[in-house]
Structure formats: structure tokens, C-alpha cells
Amino acid sequence: MEGSQDEWEQRRRYFPSERRFDYDDPLARLRLTLHRDAVDDARDSYRDPATGATVLCSTTLLDQGICCSLGCRHCPYVGGRRLVIPGIVDE
């Protein structure tokens, strides 16, 4: 059971809910990679490659302790399916 909890935490940390993230967008893999790199480097955010907007990381949002309801891309509190993209996180 502990393995499944670890898997869920990793999925929640690195892969956003489909409710907030378009996995079919041509920049999806790049955005996930930028997010992963920011999380692994303990940064609070990264710059969106298309818009230049600052995007908060899931770890920063987790530290808030609650969803702010502002529509954050990587909100870890939003339900819904979280797709795992091979190569984003080492298995």
C-alpha cells in the first residue's frame, strides 16, 4: 500500500490534473519538463514558453495547504485524471 501512496504523491507532484492542463497541446511535454526541472531545483515557479507568464509549481501550491481557486495549472488539490508522460520522471 505504501508504494501506491508514493506513486500518487509523485503523480500529484509532477503531473497536473486534466482539468487544468491540456495534455494534447503541442507544448505540453516542454511545460511538464520545465515544471519538473523547477520542482527538482526547489524553485517556486517557471516561465511559460509561449506566454512568458510565471507559473507556480505544485510544490509551492502544496505549501499553501489549500486550493486558492485561481485556476493554477499545477494545482495539486484539483481532482481528475493525471496522465503520466514517459520520460518526464525517472521510473
Structure characterization notes:
The protein has 91 residues and is mainly alpha-helical. 36% of the residues lie in helices and 7% in strands. The protein has helices at 2-14, 28-40, 58-64; strands spanning 45-47, 54-56. The protein has a two-stranded antiparallel sheet. A hairpin with a 6-residue loop joins strand 1 and strand 2 (54-56). 19% of the residues are buried.
Concise account of the structure shown:
This protein is 36% helix and 7% strand. It has 3 helices and 2 strands. 19% of the residues are buried.
Helix run count: 3
Q: Order of strands across the widest beta sheet?
A: 1-2
Q: Low-confidence segments, ≥5 residues, pLDDT <50? A: none
Question: What is the approximate shape?
Answer: globular
**What multimeric state do the chains show?**
single chain
Output mean pLDDT: 90
Strand fraction band? 5-15%
Query: Over the alpha carbons, how many angstroms does the gyration radius reach?
Result: 12 Å
